[in-house]
Design a protein that fits this description.
Layout (H helix, E strand, L loop, with lengths): L4 H10 L4 E2 H11 L8 H13 L3 E7 L5 E7 L1 H25 L5
Antiparallel strand pairs: 1-3, 2-3
Length: 105
């Protein structure tokens, strides 16, 4: 993935409410129809990076299967970041689409 893509996907997932790491990975996979698979080796360093930047906060809680888990939620700064990065990614995707041109049959 391009640098920053995983961060944006995580932030976007958290727009819908707090989630633990496995739930974030599952949501990204489901929303991408199985195209994007996030492994733990990438996910947890990204979550730590986002927490260090003040875009997410983490709290301990209990998961649906009754296990202790860290639940991540967006901060106000994180919500602003989602909006800014989403706008930038949509602009970039549109530009790439123009360069690639129409799909050929």
């Amino acid at each position: 993935m391009l640098q920053g893509t995983l961060d944006l996907l995580i932030l976007r997932t958290l727009v819908f409410g707090p989630q633990h790491g496995q739930g974030i990975a599952r949501a990204i996979q489901q929303q991408s129809d199985g195209t994007l698979l996030v492994d733990h080796g990438s996910l947890y360093p990204a979550l730590q990076r986002l927490e260090a930047r003040g875009w997410v906060r983490a709290e301990w809680g209990t998961s649906d299967n009754n296990r202790k888990a860290r639940f991540y939620s967006l901060t106000k700064a994180g919500r602003r970041q989602v909006l800014a990065e989403t706008k930038q990614w949509r602009r970039l995707a549109a530009a790439i689409g123009r360069v690639l041109g129409p799909e050929e049959a």
